[in-house]
Amino acid sequence: MLLPPELPDGAHHVPGWLSLEQQRWIIGQFAAWADGPVPIRAARVRGHEMSVKTVCLGWHWRPYQYTREAVDVNGRRVLDFPDWLGELGRQALVEATDDPRAGDAYTPDTALVNYYDEQARMGMHQDKDERSDAPVVSLSIGDTCTFRFGNTEHRNRPYSDVELASGDLFVFGGPSRFAFHGVQRTHAGTAPTGCGLEHGRVNITMRVTGLS
């Protein structure tokens, strides 16, 4: 049996954290978000359309900037960041770090909700458009992906490849908050029955923008 990869300080992987019932419920919310005032879309980075499709909550993200309105889509304001998701984020930090106080001061105000089909990838990048260094909380539902988590200096080794399955929690903060990371592959047909998704993968990343 292969041992899970060793992760750097500040990074935590909790397999199967969300129950199937929770996953189904969240996918129901995702369907409403994607059909909301700002539809799900593929952002453009340096003139190229991403293979991942994104809907945002709280703040609208486009490459290197957050705004309240989706100025690159239809100009409408994005949906509010839901209270229940913030509470889930605080619970996630406690679970991931085994520190009962880890979530006390965590107040995420945005979420990037990404949909990956089997062709979608995400290159190695840093989450550094925020003005806060609070942890990023990531939830996965649907098909398993190969997630590459690296170092804070560059896109090259050392890095670890982690299989993120439906219901998995991944947190990175502290010395790993600005680590390069990306999705190498989405494995079609691996979503468990009852998770709410028949095809593809939904990933929710909660962040604290530090904006007002």
UniProtKB/TrEMBL annotation:
Binds 1 Fe(2+) ion per subunit. Fe cation binds at H125, D127, H181. Residues 107-210 form the Fe2OG dioxygenase domain. The keyword Iron applies. Keywords: Dioxygenase, Iron, Metal-binding, Oxidoreductase. One of its GO terms (biological process) is oxidative RNA demethylation. The keyword Iron applies. Its cofactor is Fe(2+). This is Alpha-ketoglutarate-dependent dioxygenase AlkB. The lineage of its organism: Bacteria, Bacillati, Actinomycetota, Actinomycetes, Micrococcales.
